[in-house]
Write a structure and sequence with these properties.
about 90 residues, Immunoglobulin-like, six-stranded antiparallel beta sheet
Length: about 90
């Protein structure tokens, strides 16, 4: 049972539609965002979306689904693990 749970925790889907809409699953936290960059932490590491006129259509912490809309020019991944404490933990160190 534990092995099956670990496998599902490591699954992630990213769908890019016409470079206008990105849907990502397994998102734990949105670290930062503006009209040019959105940085999010997923179960598999850091996800960075760059472009113009970007905005977050929706983000559910319950389901881990993130929807980004705008002119998407690149999507990049990093194996960086999310720092403990999140955004406010880094501010108040």
């Amino acid at each position: 049972m534990e092995e099956k749970r670990q496998q599902t925790d490591m699954s992630q889907n990213i769908v890019l539609e016409s470079r206008k809409k990105l849907t990502a699953s397994s998102v734990k936290e949105v670290d930062s965002f503006d009209e040019q960059n959105i940085v999010a932490f997923t179960t598999l590491g850091e996800l960075t979306v760059t472009g113009s006129n970007l905005h977050i259509g929706s983000f559910s912490t319950d389901t881990g689904e993130l929807i980004v809309e705008g002119e998407i020019s690149s999507v990049s991944f990093s194996d960086d693990v999310q720092p403990s404490g999140g955004f406010f933990g880094r501010i108040f160190r």
